[in-house]
Known about the structure:
The protein is of the alpha/beta class. It has 3 domains: 14-153 and 275-346, FAD/NAD(P)-binding domain, CATH 3.50.50.60; 166-272, FAD/NAD(P)-binding domain, CATH 3.50.50; 357-465, 2-Layer Sandwich (Enolase-like, domain 1). Helix content is 30%, strand content 25%. It has 13 helices and 22 strands. The radius of gyration is 24 Å and the shape is globular. The N and C termini lie far apart (66 Å). Residues 15-329 form the FAD/NAD(P)-binding domain.
Amino acid sequence: MYNRGEEVRPISNEFDVVVLGGGPGGYAAALYGASAGLSVCVVEKEKVGGTCLHRGCVPAKEYLETASVYRTVLEASEFGISSPSPTYDFSVAQSRKQKVVDQLWRGLSGLMKGRGIAIVEASGRYEGNGMVSLSDGNTVHGESIILATGSVPRTFPGFEPDGRYVMTSDEFLALNELPQSVAVVGGGAIGCEFASMLCDMGAEVTIIEALPSILAGCDEDIADVVKRSFRKRGITIHTGTSVTAHQPDGDYTKLLFGDGQELRVNAIIVSVGRRPNTDAMLGSDASVELDARGFVKVDPYMRTSEQGVYAIGDIVNTAQLAHVGFAEAIVAIKTILGEYAVPVEYSSVPWCIYTNPEVAFAGLTENQARNMGYDILVKKDQFGGNSRARILGETQGMVKIVAERLSNGKAGKILGVHMVGPWVTEQLGQGYLAVNWEATPEEIGQFIQPHPTLSESFGETVLALTGRGLHIG
């Protein structure tokens, strides 16, 4: 009935924990639970790894890396390297993407098998009383159940994905050839990543966003840097605008939006968020409560309204990030074990957006801090003054830190760290720790930053907040 690691005992359909869904949250719960000695079964209708590995984070970032390499070759003459008329074959990028995904999937599958986790390759539905029914007619039972069925792309009437004119991330990431003119509907993180990649690969790109700004959840100064970069590179941005219809015509489709505006493109990518995949998750005897939008209601320890049943990942109304799913999985397993568990602090989770330039942040934006009543101090360090950024030839961007202002005028705890520029997704770690430890600039300023590095900009900004900066005031 299922693929079983050798260490699972007894050989039956009874487990300590049954996890419904094998995406990041689900497989993290299985790995963490198995490492604690629990017998665990994962029910997954496709391949373990979920959307993130197979149709989301990993494939998208592989394509973004392809765009980065292409951009580097195009600009190689600045370093005295001749690379006349470089071209790309996107089908090769697609093959490389699949190779990366398959290697990671095989590694994950082997890791789960090595920890004795049973993997059921079937669709599952939670029926209540610890019972999960399977599409092959069998059932499995768990003393505890973890629901982790993930999410699917949101769509809206008139723009249902057809794989030719209209696509979501699922269809786009399966392409072997890139469209040359694209309208991206939605200017959030995923939409902006697609727009950035397509532009760097030579496509004509238009972003249409209903909200007043793209990257609406980012600090305004950070989002402004991305907007300026996009416009300089030829990306057209329409904000405060909605699409109304599209009319296919051969290789093109005419997109209607705004107040009678029209745009002729090869493809439309709909990127307006993801909805919880809970439609067929529950049977009639399950007493797990959903909210009006289909999210599972949970408490801070990921417990649902039914005793012994937990929910994690994209099906709960929290940040739809793989690493948040990992964290929620640990909280759920610790709670099942009766161990001390620290609930996820959602207001300060790390965010990374892999556009060109990259964006990374944790904690409160400047506006959020002010709206919450904080008296604040703000300092910024532009990457234009950073030696490593100059060496790389990527000087666009900044580090911005928001700190509480104490009654004596000095900087107190760091409330938010916001970055935009080269490789900031790899630099956020120390900023995330500073925010979550409620550290002060005086404390963080004691740490030495190696030179020359991009991470110096964080250290410079922290020192400036102490009132005694080196290169910035």
